[in-house]
């Protein structure tokens, strides 16, 4: 089989340190993989958090803490693609099936993290990142260049210092907070959750923040360069800036919609809330 | 028997397998997989209603969506042999029967699309399940029908019958694209024709029976998540209802359409997450 041959070309060292680590029922496992540039790492964890951070060298180090013997960790490697899956055994519960992952990987690695109930954390990466969670919180810090796709049911989403990539967030009920987030495309699609943006909207980007019943608060500096449209069907809109009138045929409705430009209008910003409040704030 | 020879006679495999064919299947995992895929597609196809045969516009949409998603490249083809030659008797019948001619035209279109598919892109079981729920939820399919007896179809019909699974495959791919990405029209940049969209039968704060079933699947696996899924589905269905109402009132309003698309994307996401979890 080609896969076997491919596998044979890759040095993969798996060190399993099974035994009690922190408490009687906890099992600590550590996996090491040697990878090439732009590797891909996927972790699927039914219950429990996943954290990924950069490490120097072409290696992936997975530290896993299993909360019981009702769950095992399956790992596989095909070339520079590493897959880690928490495998639940019969009788596993959210408590006994929990696994905590702390992963170190090359900064240029592409990452896919999926957890039903655990939190997801990614920091300092430059590759594409896909994060899928149900109720757990999602946090991303200091990432650049790669695309960032996040889907959550009710888990909150916090992004800090995310630049130069496409950012796409879909969440039904999670609160979404973005600080210093900019890029060619930033899209947020929320239902019940509030959306908070604090940044300068960069240059040449398209920003679309949409929520059904949540509020949107966007804080920008006076020097921001944006072409902004804000509109709420049933809620109020508030604008702290003195905008230049919009050139388009947009119809302003006092209190529920406004549009205009600031500076050279380098980025396009749309703030839409069906029934929530929208506030475009000037940073003090 | 070579793979090429085997795949050339694939359409006739419904009439029984020779020892030679069986031997080839045992020794060639690729052809065995191909046959298994076709059998699965045929099983799905038998559950489709004849009246739900998609029209030419649908196939164009499929192709556009697949190309948009990068799933189809160039003229890459799976090695299926399409029996394009018809007997004189068939031709005469086709000339005298607009219904069969129409079916044949559609099937030819399907086979064109099928050639563009790659074997490695066969949807996973979770996709099949997701599609089924999505299609049921939208009222496009109902309870599975009993298998139609093959004896009802004459030999001439059977020559074409093997293409029916491809119709199912293409329909499934359409469903996949629409399901996984909300509405294909969003991605292809087409403006939804809201005036022609049938009203969505979503009642206040309710979930459909199919969605209830999906919620149960989630709750069976993780009880704490069942309530969250149900509440979020209700919220999203309400959102869709409100957004649709707004879009109908303001059919030229781009923002109104944006809300509607966002709401559908959320529902698609919930389905996807629920089915991904339940199939782990």
Structure commentary:
The complex is a heterodimer of chains A (284) and B (280). Chain A has 284 residues and is mostly beta strands. Chain A folds into two domains: 1-37 and 49-109, no CATH class; 137-284, no CATH class. Chain A has one helix and 25 strands. In chain A, the strands form two sheets. A 13-stranded mixed sheet of chain A has the order 5-6-2-8-10-12-14-16-18-24-20-23-22. In chain A, strands 1-4-7-3-9-11-13-15-17-19-25-21 form a twelve-stranded mixed sheet, with no helix packed on it. Residues 1-22 of chain A have low confidence and may be disordered. Chain B is an all-alpha fold. Chain B folds into two domains: 3-187, no CATH class; 194-278, no CATH class. Helices cover 64% and strands 0% of the residues of chain B. The model of chain B is unreliable at 75-85, 143-168 and 174-203 (pLDDT under 50). Classes of the chains: A mainly beta (284), B mainly alpha (280). Chain A binds chain B through residues 44, 46-47, 88, 94, 114, 116-117, 132, 134-135, 151, 153-154, 170, 172-173, 189, 191-192, 208, 210, 212, 231, 233, 270, 272, 274-275, and chain B through 222, 224-225, 228-229, 231-232, 235-236, 239, 242-243, 246, 255-256, 258-259, 262-263, 265-266, 269-270, 273, 276-277, 280.
Give a count of the beta strands of chain A, DSSP E runs of length 2 or more: 25
- Average pLDDT over all residues of chain A: 90
Overall, the morphology of chain A is elongated
Helix content of chain A: under 10%
The number of distinct structural domains of chain B comes to 2
Structural class by sheet pairing and helices of chain B: mainly alpha
Approximately how much beta-strand content do the residues of chain A carry? over 45%
Write down the overall geometry of chain B.
flat
Q: Can you tell me the residue ranges of chain B where pLDDT is under 50 for at least 5 consecutive residues?
A: 75-85, 143-168, 174-203
Share of β-strand residues of chain B: under 5%
Largest interface: A-B, 29 and 27 residues
Helix tally of chain B? 13
Question: What is the overall pLDDT average of chain B?
Answer: 63
What is the subunit organization of this protein?
Answer: heterodimer
H/E element string of chain B? HHHHHHHHHHHHH
Largest sheet of chain B, described in full?
Answer: none
């Amino acid at each position: 089989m080609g896969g076997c041959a491919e596998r044979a070309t890759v040095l993969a060292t798996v060190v399993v340190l099974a035994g009690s680590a922190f408490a009687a029922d906890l099992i600590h496992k550590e996996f090491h993989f040697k990878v090439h540039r732009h590797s891909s790492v996927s972790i699927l964890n039914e219950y429990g958090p996943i954290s990924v951070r950069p490490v120097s060298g072409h290696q992936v180090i997975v530290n896993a803490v299993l909360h019981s013997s009702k769950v095992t960790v399956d790992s596989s490697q095909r070339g520079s693609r590493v897959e880690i899956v928490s495998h639940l055994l019969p009788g596993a519960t959210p408590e006994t099936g929990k696994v905590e992952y702390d992963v170190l990987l090359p900064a240029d690695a592409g990452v896919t993290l999926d957890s039903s109930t655990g939190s997801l954390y990614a920091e300092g990466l430059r590759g594409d990142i896909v994060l899928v969670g149900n109720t757990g919180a999602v946090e991303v810090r200091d990432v650049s260049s790669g695309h960032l796709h996040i889907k959550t049911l009710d888990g909150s989403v916090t992004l800090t210092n995310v630049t130069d990539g496409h950012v796409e967030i879909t969440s039904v009920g999670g609160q979404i907070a973005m600080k210093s987030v900019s890029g060619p495309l930033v899209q947020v699609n929320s239902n019940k959750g509030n959306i908070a943006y604090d940044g300068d909207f960069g240059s040449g980007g398209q920003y679309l923040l949409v929520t059904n019943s949540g509020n949107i608060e966007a804080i920008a500096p006076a020097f921001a360069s944006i072409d902004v449209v804000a509109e709420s069907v049933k809620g109020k809109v508030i604008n702290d800036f003195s905008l230049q009138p919009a050139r388009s045929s947009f119809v302003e409705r006092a209190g529920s919609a406004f549009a205009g430009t600031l500076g050279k209008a380098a980025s396009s910003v749309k703030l839409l809330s069906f029934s929530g409040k929208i506030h475009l704030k000037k940073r003090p | 028997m070579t793979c090429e020879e085997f795949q050339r006679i694939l359409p006739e495999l419904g009439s029984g397998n020779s020892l030679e064919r069986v031997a080839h299947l045992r020794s060639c995992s690729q052809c065995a997989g191909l046959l298994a895929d076709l059998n699965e597609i045929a099983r799905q196809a038998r559950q489709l209603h004849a009246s739900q045969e998609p029209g030419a516009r649908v196939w164009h949409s499929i192709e556009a969506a697949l190309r948009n998603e990068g799933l189809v490249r160039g003229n890459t083809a799976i090695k299926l042999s399409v029996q394009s030659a018809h007997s004189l008797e068939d031709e005469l019948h086709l000339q005298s029967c607009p219904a069969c001619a129409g079916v044949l035209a559609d099937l030819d279109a399907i086979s064109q699309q099928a050639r563009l598919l790659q074997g490695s892109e066969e949807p996973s079981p979770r996709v099949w399940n997701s599609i089924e729920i999505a299609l049921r939820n939208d009222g496009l399919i109902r309870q599975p029908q009993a298998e139609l007896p093959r004896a009802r179809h004459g030999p001439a019909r059977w020559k074409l019958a093997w293409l029916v699974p491809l119709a199912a495959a293409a329909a499934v791919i359409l469903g996949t694209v629409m399901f996984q990405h909300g509405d294909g029209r969003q991605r292809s940049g087409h403006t939804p024709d809201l005036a022609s969209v049938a009203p969505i039968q979503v009642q206040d704060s309710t979930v459909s029976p199919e969605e209830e079933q999906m919620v149960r699947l989630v709750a069976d696996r993780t009880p704490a998540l069942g309530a969250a899924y149900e509440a979020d589905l209700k919220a999203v269905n309400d959102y869709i209802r409100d957004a649709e109402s707004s879009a109908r009132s303001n059919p030229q309003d781009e923002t109104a359409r944006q809300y509607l698309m966002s709401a559908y994307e959320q529902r698609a996401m919930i389905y996807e997450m629920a089915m991904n979890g339940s199939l782990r």
